Amino acid sequence: MRILLFGGFLGSGKTTTILQVAKYLTESRQQTVAIIENEIGAAGVDDKLFSDRGLQVKRLFGGCVCCQITSDLISAMDEIHATVKPDWLMIEMTGLAYPSKTAKMIKKYSKVYSAFKTVTIVDRGRWAELVAMLKPLVIGQVEGSDLIVLNKADLAGEELAKITGDLQEIDPKLKVVITSATKELPITVLEEVVCCE
Q1: Selection from 42, 113, 45 nearest residue 73 by Cα
Q2: How far apart are CA 99 and CA 146, in angstroms?
Q3: What pTM value is reported for the model?
Q4: In the sheet where 2-7 sits, what is the strand order?
Q5: Which H/E stretch holds residue 38?
């Protein structure tokens, strides 16, 4: 089972990206996909959307995804691996989580994956605003990612070169692909997301 861990701030386009990647894997590659959606609060807004697409969903509720939920996340992964046996498991982090911390925990405690990748979605339209207001969170979400999907390139916002430069300052090893919010993800971007070691 290969794992894709998706992070990014609220409204960055995680759900849309996940659904497009899942569609690509199931339709073009004929592979199976399961999804775990992490939410803060008593109810999530996206599980009906996921369920309506016929995708397996395991809901997790509670506080901080990096501490309180960690044991539940590992248990959920073990359960999905044992019962559903998907080719791919996609984990959608809450918009307030630090994906790199969850990735470290999964790599330390889980034995059910054959490949792993952390993908963080960055919202071009709100980059400057988020950095100004929530810089530690933004940096924490970007650091340690295997791939940054710089989304909403078609919308007004900070210049793409400026954002790319900011991302490289945070982590010089970051790989960045640029996408548009109004179009389907191109095959080159889909392939980059699922290129998983």
Answers
A1: 113
A2: 11
A3: 0.84
A4: 56-60, 33-38, 88-92, 2-7, 115-123, 147-151, 176-178
A5: strand 33-38
**If you average pLDDT over every residue of the chain, what do you get?**
81
For position 138, which CATH number holds?
3.40.50.300
- Give the tens place of pLDDT for each residue, 35-61: 887 655 444 445 555 555 555 565 543
CA–CA separation, 39 vs 61, rounded Å? Answer: 6
> Is the pLDDT assigned to residue 66 strictly greater than 70?
no
DSSP annotation of 125 = G
> What phi, psi does 56 have (nearest 5°)?
-70, 130
Residue in the structure block whose two tokens are 């995708």: 55
Structural domains in the chain (count): 1
- How far are the Cα atoms of 62, 66, 77, 192 from residue 47, in angstroms, in the given order? 16, 21, 17, 26
- Coil, strand, or helix at residue 109? helix
DSSP result, 53-102 = TT-EEEEE-BS-TTTTTHHHHHHHHHHHHHHT--SEEEEE--TT--HHHH
**Of residues 5, 17, 4, 12, the one with CA closest to residue 134:** 12
Domain that holds residue 147: 2-194
